[in-house]
User: Fold this.
Amino acid sequence: MSTKNNLRPFGWRDKLGYAMGDMGCGFSFQLVATFMQLFYMQYIGVSEEAYAIIIILSKVFDAINDIVIGNLVDTKKIGKKSKYMPWILIGAVTLVIFNVMIFAPVQSFSTWGKYAWCLGSYCLWSIAYTMVNVPYGSLHSVITDDPQQKVSLSTFRSIGAALPAIVIMIVLPNIVYDKKLNAAGEEIEVLKGSSLLPVAIVLSVVAMVVLWGTTKLVTERVSHTSSDNAVGFKAMISSTKSFFTNRAMVGATIASVASVALFNSTMALNNMVFQYFFHATDKISIAMVGSYAPMILFMAFIGKLTKKFGKKTVIVTSMLVGAISGLVALFVPISPDTTGMIIYVVCLMGLNLGNAGFQISVWAIVADCIEVSYRKTGKSEEGSLYAIYSFFRKLAQGIGQAVVALGLGAIGFVEGETAVQPEGFGEDVKNLYFIVLAIGSLIAFLAMKFIYNIGKKEEEEFAAQSKA
Assistant:
């Protein structure tokens, strides 16, 4: 490992540029994660069982996609100055096309035509997203080798990720929901699916511009010189072995799968709580308080807390709080009125308090895991290791959406824009949401407590070695 000389010092340009990277990814990802499932099940007319199968198939495709692109990023330098920036730019352009394709109005297609379009467009989107996200995530390891600077990058990445989510959850409900009469003649809130195409066009262009900003602001300072020049299939086998023999990486990945599958990929359930329980989609933005107030609180203190106690201790403690909060929330009486909304948001705050510490620190943790691998093997495999990690995060997205789809089927969801839902459906959706969040916190807690093995002592050793 070496640090490039004659470069400007690490500073605000790097933090801002790195935050813009996840902001650009987020404008695409959050739109797909929040509304794709609702779009196909409520507007296009895909059944919950078929949607669950489509998502799982697309994630099997990602098993190949992520690892192949990660290997290409590591072994095929397509730019003269940077290993990562050209891939980000190419991915950003293609992401516009396929993000828009997902929300095309194909409700007139045959049943199998709808299935094929949903699967095909999502797989193509996954390729474009991987071309952006893998090199972008790998940047964390080459911007700086200072542990505290890595924590600050992770914090700013979380800020960048939060901004698109806030915009999508506050602004879009006022655009994409409408009131209609259902088959029983009752006025209900429905998804106005036709509005999502122009929304996808605008947000995709914004994402492309913001990602371009990342390539102009971030500086790569750290160079990992590899002792292994393996390419192709041999390189894939090597990086896969490095990944699964890295205990810290395995623990962090299991925690990430739980967090992504049962927190980040279940926002559709939150929307449905306001749609079917509170009957007030115009107030979905209130839930942002429960989601992001704990994160903002953690951002203010995360640097001091991790420096004093270590990232692992902070995350394990917060995840335990989240798991307990989720179990308690199931027994708290919540009424479908303004008072009930306030109680609901407070319950979400307890659950998200558990996830906030991990969400903010996760990218610094992954960078630490990659550093452990490099010191152990002497191989420069940032792109491949991050790609395998990214694959499991994407698999988690599919698992989360499949869990939601199957969970909705279990409580009697009826697909269709103006379908009549069974009695008590709103209450069941609310409880389902709390259950999956609590399970996510518990799994992440166990993985970080008993598998992840980079504690405060190891972090201090990293810091000492980086200054040596």
In short: Strands lie at 2-3, 177-181, 187-191, 222-223.
